[in-house]
Amino acid sequence: MPLDNIKIISAGAGSGKTYRLTQEMTRLLTNKEVKAAGIIATTFTKKAAAELKERVRVKLLSEGLTQEANELSNALIGTVHGLGVKLLQRFAFEAGVSPQVEIIPDSDHQQLFNLSMAAVIDVPTIERIESLINRLGLTAGFGNAYNWRKEVRDVVEVIRANDFGTTAIQRSKEQSWQTFADFLPPAGDRDLNSINQGLLTLLDSTQMQLEANEADQTKTSLSVAQKLRNLHRELQQKQYLSWQQWAGLCKLKVGAKSREIIEDLTSYANGHLAFKAFQDDVRNFIELIFDCAEKTIREYADYKQRRGQIDYTDMEVLVLRLLENQTVKETLSKELDLLMVDEFQDTSPIQLAIFLELSKLANQSIWVGDPKQSIYGFRGAEPKLMAAVIAACGGVKAENIQEHSYRSREDLVYVSNDIFTRAFSDLPEAEVRLNPKRKRKNSEFGPDESPEQAAETALWHWHYELDGKGRIPKAWKYGVLARSVAELLADPPLIRPKGASDYRPLRAEDIAILCRSNFGCRDIATALHDAGLPAAVARDGLLSTAESTLILACLKYMLNSEDSLSVAEIKLLANRQDISEIIEDRLDYVEQVEKEENRFALPPWGEDDSFITALDEMREDTQEYAPSELLNHLLDKLDLRRIIVSWGNGEQRLSNVDELRKIALEYEENSHRQQQAASVGGFLLALDRLARERMDRQGAGERPEAVNVLTYHRSKGLEWPIVICNDLDQGLRADLWGRAIISEVSDVDINRPLAGRWLRYWVNPYGVSGRGLELIEAMDNSHWQEEKTAEAKAEEARLLYVGITRARDYLVLPTTKDGAGWLDRVYGTETVLDPASDQAPFTWKNHEVDKRTRHWTEPKTLPVSEQKFNPIPFMQANETCRAIHITYEVGEREMITRFPVKSFAKSALHQYFQPESSLLPELATPEFGQVIAAFCQADHPLLTQAERTEMAETLLSNYAIPETADADELLERSDTFQLWLQNILPLADRSLALPYRYYDGPQLYASQIDILLRTNQQSVIINHCVLASKKWDAQLNQHLPSLHYQAWASKQLLPVPLVAAYIHLPLQGTILKLEQ
Q: 162, 258, 746, 759: which sits with the fewest CB atoms below 10 Å from its CB?
C-alpha cells in the first residue's frame, strides 16, 4: 500500500507537540488546502482533543479567519472511540447497527462480562480449574486466592483486540501447549497412583535415614527430615503433592555427610517432567483458559446482540469492517481532506488498521507521536507495528522532527540526550536528541535562569545508607526518601513554574515522586504521612476510611433501623463516644431484651441519641430519594462535613466524600443504562463489589501542600519542577508466563497489520517459584526468553524516558546500596551513579553534567512526625434549613471544633510515681483513682503524719476500696506529688476546687480548677483526670478536647497569666502537660 500521503512528525517529550499540531492544521485551513468539515483528528484523551480544537480556533481568530474558526465545529476532532461512534451512526445501515447505537461504557463492561462468564462456565469446569490451581501451586505466594477469572479476562481482551476468530483461537490454544511441550521429554505411561506410591516409599526411607545418620545431626539435615515427614503425611491425606512441592524436592539441601542419602529422592523428583500427570495438568490448564475465554466471548456477544448494544472493542471491529465497504470508501474519499493522528505510538493493532484504512481515503494524513514514549504495551500498543509504518513511509524527514525542548533546563536535556541516544540506538540520533531552549544564559524561551538556579546543577543524587547491617527494607527506603523531601521543603530552592516568568520558592505541589506500581505509590504515601507531609495520590481503600464508614452507617440505618452495627458506628464516629461505653450500653440493652417477654415493647437501641433521632425524623420524608439525593441530604442536614473535618486532614477527607458522591451518581447512571431501578440497597451492594475488587479509589487530595505521588505510566503528558525517579533498583521484568502476542512474520504487512499473529499463553507449573529447575533453565536459555528480555529492556527504556523527561528544573535519582540497576541497564554501564562522587558520566556534545550528591545515614526505625493540616472555613448553617440547635451549655461538638482530636505527645508525660502495671487488679479501678486524686488534692505539708493517715484511711473506707490498699501507699503517692507541686512553681499560693463559670459567646461553660498555684506574676493549674488502667492512652486522646477547653476557659478568667496547664492521671502516677 502506498503511504506517500502520510507525514510522520516525531515529537519528543517537551518539544511542542500540540503547538506543531496547531500550526499544521491552521496552515492547511488558511491555505484552503483542507475544509474544516473534511478533517478527522484523533487524540488520546478528550482533554487533548478540546485543547487542540481551542488552540486552532484561537490561532485562526488571531489571523482574522473568522469564518474558518466558526466552521471548525464541523471538524471531527476527538478520541478514537468518539470518532468510531460518529462513523457508525452515520453509516448505520452499512454497518448493520442502529443509528442510535448504544455503546456499553467501561464502567458497565466488566460487570456484564462477569455475568457472561458466570453463565457459561459450569460448576464441574470450575472444580477442574480449582483442582489444577492447587496442583500447580498457583495459590502460593499471592496473598489472596488465585484469580483465574482474571486470567480468562486478560486472554479475552487480547483475542478481541486482535480480532481473532474461532480458527485463530483454536490455533493459539494448540500452539501454546505445543511450544510449552517443546521443553518437555516424552511423557511416560505411569499413572499418578503408581508415581505417588514410589514417592511415599522414598519420602519415608529418606526421612528415616536422615534422622538415623549420626554422622550428620546438623540443623539443616534434621529440618529436611522434618519437611519430608510432613510431605509424607500430606501426600497420604490429599493423594497428591503440588508440582511446586515436587520442585522443592528437586532442590533439597542437607549437610555434606547426608547428600548421598537424598540422591534417590531428588533424582526421582527431577523426573517429574516426564510424568504424564504433570504434562496433563499444564496442558489442561492452558486449554481450559482458552475454552472458557471462547465460550465467554460467544455468550457476551449474544448478550449484546439481544439488547442491541456494543462495547468499544466491537465498535473498533465494526469500524474496520465498515472501511472495507465500497460505498463507505467512495463517500469518505470524496469528503476526507485531512486525517490527523495524535500520539500514534499508543494505538492498538486494530486502531492502527483503522488509521491505515482512513489514510488511504484522505488527501493528506499527519501522524504525530514519539515511539520513545510507547509505554502502554499492557493496553495493546505495539512499537513494532509503528516502526513498520514509519519504515513504510520512508522514515521521518528532518523537517518533521521537533528538535527543541521547551520544558527542561539544559542540564536535564543533555542528560536525557546522553542516556537515550544509547538506549534507542536503533533510532536515528536526530529523533532522540533535543536542543534546550531553557539555558543559564542567552535562553531562547523565557528569561535566563536566576543566579541561584544557574549555580545549581539540575541533577541530584540522593544516596541512603542504613545505620547498621542487614537488608534494606522497602518501608525504610521510602521512609528516608520522605524525610529527604521534608528537608527539601524546609529549605526550598527557587523554581520557575510553567508559564511563569518569575521564580518562587518550591512548594510541595511542585514535586512528583514516580513509582513503578500502584502498591509503591501507596507505600510512598504512607511514608510521607509519617514524615508529616500529605500526599496527592489516588489509592484504594475509600470505604475503609472513617468518613465513608460514618456516611455509610447513616445510609444503612436509614435503610434498616434495626441495624445495630450502624448505630454503634454512628455513636463512635458522630458523637465521639468511647467504644467501651458503646459495648457496655449494647450489652445492657441485650440483657434487657432477654428479660423482656415482648421484645418489641422495648424502644430500639440508640433512640436516646440525638443523632439517631435526627435520622429517624428524616426517614419518612426520604423514602423515595435516589442514593445520591439521600447522601447529599444527610451531608447537609446533619452537617457531616463539619464533623468529618474536625478529625484532621480535612482536605483529604472532603475529597473522599466527593468521591463517594461521584460513585453514587455513576451507580444511578449505570442503573439507568441497564434499565434497572437505582436504590440505596443496590448502591450499597455496588460499593461492596468495588471494595472486593479494590476499585474503591480515594480522592487524590491534590492541594498546594501535598506531594504528588503517581506511577510512571500515569505521569505521561505531565510535568513538574522537581521529579524524583523512584524504584531505580528494580530488576528486569521479563517473565515468560501469562499471555504474549507472537508474530510469525518478520516484516509487518502494512495492508494486513493483524495477519500472522497468535496468542501464546503459558502457566508456571511451579506457582511463583522454580528457579534452578531443569524446565526453567531450559526456558531461560531459549529464543523465547531472549526475545522477551529484549522487549522488556526496550519497554523499561521507554518508561524511564517518560520519567526523566517529566522534570522541568531538577531531577532526583535516589539510590541505596542496592544501586540503580534500571538506570544501569538503560545506559549500558555497570554502575552509573557513584555515591562517593559528584561527577556523573553524562556528557553531550562537550557539555558535561555533574550531579549534586547528598548522603543520609538513618537508623532502621525512623521517627514519626505529626502532620499539620490547614483549617477549613465553614459557613454558618443555612437558616432556610433546620439549623443545628445551639445548646445552653458548651458541649462536645464545640470543644472538638475549637480543639480537634489528636494524639498527645509522649514527650509531654512525666512519671512522678510507680507505673500502673504494679497495681493489683482489684486496685486498677476508677474508684481507687478518685481516692488518689482526692487525697493528693487535700494533702498539705502542714498536716501531721497522724492526720494524714486518718484522712487516707477515711477515704479508703468511704470508697469501699479493697483491703489490699493501705494508707501508706496513698501517703507515698502524695509525697511524690507534693514534691512535684513545690518544684513546678515555688513559693506559690495554693487554692483547691475553685468553681467558675465562663460564657463562650451565648453558651455557658461551668467547671472547676482542682488545684491552682498562683504568684503575683503567673499561675499554673492542675486538673485530675481518672482513666481506667487499660488502654488509658487511647482514652486520654478522646478526653483531650475537653481538657484543653477546660484549661483555655480557665485562662480567660484568671487575673494573672497562665503559664502552664497540667493533667494529673492518678492511677497512672503520671502528669501530662497540655500544649498552650
A: 746
Under 8 Å between Cβ of 92 and 101: yes
Strand partners, 438: 409
For residue range 897-942, what is the model confidence (pLDDT) as tens digits?
A: 788 767 667 667 788 876 544 567 777 788 888 999 999 999 988 8
Q: Domain spanning 542-692: which superfamily? A: PCRA; domain 4 (1.10.486.10)
The amino acid occupying position 629 is E
Report the topology of domain 451-537+706-734+768-858.
Rossmann fold (3.40.50)
The dihedral region occupied by 45, where left means phi > 0, alpha psi between -120 and 50, and beta the remainder, is: beta
- Give the rounded percent of residues in the chain with a pLDDT score beyond 90: 40
Measured between alpha carbons, how far is residue 209 from residues 225, 235, 257 in Å? 9, 19, 12
Rounded to whole angstroms, the Cα distance separating 617 from 723 reads: 53
As a 3-state breakdown, the chain gives helix, strand, coil percent values, each rounded to 5, of 50, 15, 35
Residues in a beta bridge with 513: 709, 724
User: What mean pLDDT is predicted for residues 80-97?
Assistant: 89
Distance CA 4, CA 394 (A): 9
Mind listing the pLDDT tens digit for each residue in 131-148? 999 898 887 554 456 889
State which amino acid sits at residue 572.
L
Grid cell at residue 652: 483529604
Strand 76-79, strand 39-43: pairing = parallel
Tell me the residue ranges of DSSP E strands in 112-228: none
Does the fold of domain 451-537+706-734+768-858 match that of domain 6-104+311-401? Answer: yes
Q: Which secondary-structure segment (H or E) carries 402? A: strand 401-402
Look up the CATH architecture of domain 892-1073. Answer: Alpha-Beta Complex (3.90)
* Pairwise CA distance, residues 956 & 779, whole Å: 81
For residue 118, what are the contacts with CB-CB under 8 A and spacing of at least 6? none
Write out pLDDT tens, residues 827-886: 998 889 999 999 889 999 889 999 999 999 998 888 887 777 667 776 555 544 455 567
Mention every residue, 6+ apart, whose C-beta is less than 8 A from residue 613: 607
* E strands, 644-713, in order: 707-711
**On the CB side of 37, how many CA atoms lie within 13 Å of its CA?**
5
Residues 1049-1076: pLDDT tens digits?
A: 988 888 899 999 999 988 888 898 887 6
Task: Delimit the domains of the chain by residue range.
Answer: 6-104+311-401, 106-185+279-307, 192-274, 451-537+706-734+768-858, 542-692, 892-1073
Write the pLDDT tens digit of every residue in 364-387: 999 998 999 988 876 667 787 788
pLDDT in tens, 744-767: 877 777 777 778 889 999 999 987
CATH architecture for the domain at 6-104+311-401: 3-Layer(aba) Sandwich (3.40)
Q: Which residues pair with 459 in a beta bridge?
A: 811
State residue 503's pLDDT score. Answer: 87
DSSP state of 540: B
pLDDT value of residue 325: 92
